[in-house]
Design a protein that fits this description.
284 residues; alpha/beta; Ubiquitin-like (UB roll); Cytidine Deaminase, domain 2; 4-stranded mixed sheet; 9 helices; 14 strands; 30% strand
């Protein structure tokens, strides 16, 4: 344990930034060399609704309040940030390892949530339901198809991966973390969040927008990696009309996009891209 105050401060800053330093052995050919490496932190976050625990998610610490608020919104358990009175980390943890990893949600007066329905929703969302059609039917019951009339020139999308990548501070140090970025109609990156789970990064973006009271119509959500059904469903719930990624969408994500009026931009690399779902939003 270090007794150097400056070193302790640097270590504390690393923890806040989601970085943890570990020992390793590097090989160059057959020659081993001992050293250290920065890796992304992954820790459980126990979420309590009042005094009742209802979910544990694996995440990279940071923006926990945004993550939980976005999760509640995307699961349809609350309609707006106004239905939450407070989001706070528990001040007393059961063990030192749990410090900072328990967050309590206090709902506003008169707001109630069916915990059994919440757990069913979380299970269905994580397991993608019993079959694709049932999963999409459930998503469209929770969020109506989009009627967002915004359109974007194809050139709008080409710079997005580089702009998102340039904002990934923790990825620069660890190389092991996903990002979600929110772009406005002018192509300005208005928010970016990183997490070990791309779906967590999206929840953090949605939670940030809710706290800012920022409507998400006419925006584009850019994510690292692929576009899974879960990412498409979260964009639909948040009313974001376009999701863009450097990799492929899944078949279920495309099917949801086609039925929900959502636009998916995949394989966004250099001056090339593919458009799925509501393809009319991307114009020449």
């Amino acid at each position: 344990m270090s007794h150097d105050p400056s070193q302790r401060l640097a270590q504390a800053q690393d923890e806040v930034e989601g970085v943890h330093t570990v020992a390793l052995t590097r090989f160059d050919g057959s020659c081993p060399q001992a050293g250290n490496d920065d890796v992304v932190r992954e820790e459980p976050l126990a979420i309590h609704l009042g005094r009742s625990p209802f979910a544990v998610v694996m995440r990279t610490p940071g923006a926990d309040e945004e993550l939980v608020l976005g999760l509640l919104l995307n699961e349809g358990l609350i309609a707006s940030a106004d239905e939450v009175k407070s989001l706070r980390h528990c001040s007393v943890a059961a063990s030192p390892e749990a410090d900072g990893n328990v967050l309590r949600v206090t709902l506003a007066r008169g707001v109630t949530v069916d915990l059994r329905a919440l757990r069913r929703n979380l299970y269905a969302s994580s397991s993608c339901g019993v079959c694709g059609k049932a999963t999409i039917d459930n998503a469209l019951q929770a969020a109506l198809p989009l009627e967002d009339e915004s359109t974007f020139p194809v050139e709008f999308f080409y710079p997005l991966p580089d702009r998102l990548r340039a904002a990934q501070d923790v990825f620069d140090r660890t190389g092991g973390l996903h990002a979600a970025g929110l772009f406005d109609a002018a192509g300005t990156l208005v928010a970016v969040r990183e997490d070990i789970g791309r779906h967590n990064a999206v929840d953090k973006i949605v939670g940030w927008a809710a706290l800012q009271r920022r409507p998400l119509a006419g925006h584009v959500l850019a994510v690292s990696g692929r576009i899974s059904y879960e990412i498409a469903q979260k964009a639909l719930a948040a009313r974001i009309p376009v999701v863009a990624a450097v990799s492929a969408p899944s078949s279920l994500a495309v099917e949801l996009a086609e039925r929900a009026g959502l636009t998916l931009v995949g394989f966004l690399r250099g001056q090339r891209l593919n458009v799925y779902g509501a393809r009319q939003r991307v114009r020449e």
